[in-house]
Amino acid sequence: MKESSSSKRDFLKKGLTLSLGLPLVGSGILSCTTGEKQAAPLRILILGGTSFLGPHQVAYAVSRGHKVSIFTRGKTVPTVNTEAFDHVERLIGDRQDNLTALENREWDVVIDNSGRAADWTRRTAELLREKAGLYIYISSTGVYYPHLEADVNEDTKVLLQDPVNAEGEAPERDSFGVMKAKSEVEAIKAFGKDRTAIVRPTYMLGPADRTDRFMYWPLRLARGGDIFVPGKADDPVQYVDVRDIADWCIRLAENKTAGTFNAAGPENAQGVLEFAQKGTEAFDVTSNIVLVEDYDFLQEQRVSFIIPWIMPKDDYYASARVQNSRAIGAGLTFRELKTTIKDTYDWWNSEAVDPERKTKYEQNTRTVLAREAEILEAWKVTRE
Ligand SMILES: NC(=O)c1ccc[n+]([C@@H]2O[C@H](COP(=O)([O-])OP(=O)(O)OC[C@H]3O[C@@H](n4cnc5c(N)ncnc54)[C@H](OP(=O)(O)O)[C@@H]3O)[C@@H](O)[C@H]2O)c1
């Protein structure tokens, strides 16, 4: 117990870069490339770790010399960076009802990826508050839903309760955004503001994504030719490479950075046209972007989003207009879009992706990928 308090104090004394420090300096991230001394090894517990974000965090943390433990039910098998898991301690349990494997243990940092209920976060944060120095909670820009206001920053008030329906009834379960917002509160309640980092990513893209919602872009851009791009040229898009979030989480851990951060890229505001143009740089093929700006037409064609583009209307008006300066100030960096797109394409065509999943998506006649030619033809007709 004594040792735990003093290591926690050391941790706090060394750290407390509260949000806007100069996190790259001394973080050790430079050491990867310059051969300088690495950051001191940390004991990092990842709640989760085996699906999308987790394997990238694991790989980066292991490459930095940290000691990583993961806590899962043992159901989800990592599909990328699998060799890094040879260096990882695997703890089995269930956030719903079995935290025994986390009892009587100590870590420097906890990263909570697998939060699916505020109560889960309350229980792990309460259990670990004297046993770990920093709690990094992976939240989401979904906390700002409904996205009615542009340029929201981390001080913007978020909903902690879902609105009641027309009959005056509250929903049975918290909506995603409310669940994340309440979980943030639970983490801070247990660890305190000075020992909690809240990371709110926007849509994460990259290898190991379990959703297919971004795949239109790499698959379509790789083929070249006339490429259907939905939306008005300046419709904002926000996205972030999952590896940028992963690496940054580990740097937050190394720097003991506390605070709340909107983890949204790209660095500067981007419209969907620029997004598509930059995307074409991923492949050495000739492409011609066909921008379809008519929202009514798009709605008739049942195209209201192709992530990261979401028709910026109503509750989604500002979903891609979130301020990101605080995260950038705290060291979040961004890979080039062409790298994300090319790597996602290569991953999709590698053994890491189940052939059944690939076929199911690529042969699904309801996707925009499958309907693209038909949509472009209909668009041509409306213009004649
Ligand atoms: N994808 C996006 O674009 C996006 C955007 C914003 C925020 N986020 C947030 O990012 C976070 C990271 O998600 P991820 O799936 O990539 O993380 P991950 O850590 O790679 O995977 C999720 C982990 O949760 C574990 N898990 C699930 N149910 C569990 C339970 N009852 N008890 C213990 N462990 C359990 C899974 O393993 P087992 O199945 O083996 O238990 C798996 O390892 C999430 O909180 C998500 O809401 C995602």
Description of the molecule:
With 384 residues, this protein is α/β, with parallel strands linked by helices. It has 2 domains: 2-206 and 239-263, Rossmann fold (3-Layer(aba) Sandwich), CATH 3.40.50; 216-237 and 269-320 and 337-383, no CATH class. 35% of the residues lie in helices and 15% in strands. It has 13 helices and 13 strands. The protein has helices spanning 2-14, 29-34, 53-63, 118-128, 176-191, 216-223, 242-255, 272-280, 295-300, 325-329, 337-348, 355-362, 368-383; strands at residues 43-47, 67-72, 88-92, 109-112, 134-138, 196-201, 204-205, 225-230, 240-241, 259-263, 287-292, 305-306, 309-310. The strands form 4 sheets. The chain has a 7-stranded parallel β-sheet with strand order 3-2-1-4-5-6-10, sandwiched between helices. Strand 5 (134-138), helix 5 (176-191) and strand 6 (196-201) form a beta-alpha-beta unit. The termini are far apart. Residues 1-36 have low confidence and may be disordered.
> Helical percent range?
25-40%
Count of DSSP E strands?
A: 13
Q: Give the DSSP E fraction (strand runs of 2 or more residues).
A: 5-15%
* Helical/strand content category: alpha/beta
**Which hetero ligands occur in this complex?**
NADP nicotinamide-adenine-dinucleotide phosphate
- Measured distance between first and last alpha carbons: 77 Å
Largest sheet: 7 strands, parallel
What order do the helices and strands follow?
A: HHEHEEEHEHEEHEEHEHEHEEHHHH
